[in-house]
Amino acid sequence: MFRDLWRTNDPLFGDLGRLLRMMEGNWDKVGSADLRSAPRGSFPLLNIGETDDAYNVYVFAPGVEEKDLEISVQDNVLMLSGTRAGVVEDDSATNRNWYRRERFSGEFNRAITLPDGVDADQVTASLKDGVLTVSLRKRAEIQPRRIDIQAA
Amino acid sequence: MSEVQRVENREMQPEQAANQAAEQTRNDRAIVPPVDIFEQDDAITILADMPGVNTESLGVEVKDHTLSIEGEIAVQMPDGVSARYADLRGSRYARHFTLGDEIDTDGIEGTIRHGVLNVRLPKRDTHRKRRIDIQAA
């Protein structure tokens, strides 16, 4: 589903526009950025989806267990923090020659500003296969409501 | 069909072709998972971050001296969800490594836990590290 964000079929500029936007997306914008946005390559990565009644935040935090994660909501800001342990250095770790160390380890922090109207009392979170799903219900008054039309 | 409609139809075609091309590259775009690789006396170990991949959606295979690590992100999403923001754009991971002759390809084991893949590549007996004692003359 999130692949759809790549769709850039602007008929005016076509391929050139798509290329320019890809390039723009691949470098940090220097001009003006959200205070709480994170640079590329941050840990954990996250995606946000929206349904009629909730915002779902998908946090990609592989190798992080429940006890190492802390989530809090303050007004419409969701804050995440935690620690990701490095590779275990026990008895089996003797004579390791490292060739690559690309994976993140250590403490992390991320905050996400959500649109207004989140019900802070109705937030649920679950962790599976290294993906934390946080579901924040919208306040009832901003959920779309179906209006029945009555026959006159 | 009026003249106007015919013109519109002709204009549509290159755009549709571009859409199809964009669709193609989007499907082919795989996320490159970050890895840790270390070697020990008897094996080489690869750790790869692949959140959202489980045992069923994981594929580890060796062919022609190439180790392929692939996985589909299998995250349950509710119906009618629309994307608002995405750091991770894609639904598939893929990364490939070239293996030397010293790896015992039949003995390769892979496990995935909490979205971290652990692949152990054992070395053939003939290629294990042996310590050479230096004798005092």
How would you characterize the overall build of this protein?
The complex is a heterodimer of chains A (152) and B (137). Chain A contains 1 helix and 8 strands. Chain A is mainly beta and 152 residues long. In chain A, a hairpin with a 2-residue loop joins strand 3 and strand 4. In chain B, strand 7 and strand 8 form a beta hairpin. In chain B, the strands form 2 sheets. In chain B, strands 1-2-8-7 form a 4-stranded antiparallel beta sheet, with no helix packed on it. In chain B, strands 3-4-6 form a 3-stranded antiparallel beta sheet, with no helix packed on it. Chains A and B meet through helix 1, strand 1, strand 2 and strand 5 of A and helix 1, strand 1 and strand 5 of B. Strand 1 of chain A pairs antiparallel with strand 5 of chain B, so a sheet runs across the interface.
Give a short summary of the structure:
The complex is a heterodimer of chains A (152) and B (137). With 152 residues, chain A is mainly beta.
Furnish the topology, listing elements before pairings.
The complex is a heterodimer of chains A (152) and B (137).
Chain A: H1 14-26, E1 45-50, E2 54-60, E3 69-74, E4 77-84, E5 97-101, E6 106-113, E7 118-128, E8 131-138
Antiparallel strand pairs in A: 1-2, 2-8, 3-4, 4-6, 7-8
Chain B: H1 3-28, E1 35-39, E2 43-49, E3 58-63, E4 66-72, E5 82-86, E6 92-98, E7 109-113, E8 116-122
Antiparallel strand pairs in B: 1-2, 2-8, 3-4, 4-6, 7-8
- How far is the N terminus from the C terminus of chain B? 100 Å
Distance between the termini of chain A: 43 Å
Please report which band the strand proportion of chain B falls in: under 5%, 5-15%, 15-25%, 25-35%, 35-45% or over 45%.
35-45%
Q: Tally the helices of chain B: what do you get? A: 1
Q: State the helicity of chain B in percent bands.
A: 10-25%
Main beta sheet of chain B: 4 strands, antiparallel
CATH architecture of the domain at 36-86 and 104-140 in chain A: Sandwich
Helical coverage of chain A, percent range: under 10%
Strand element count of chain A: 8
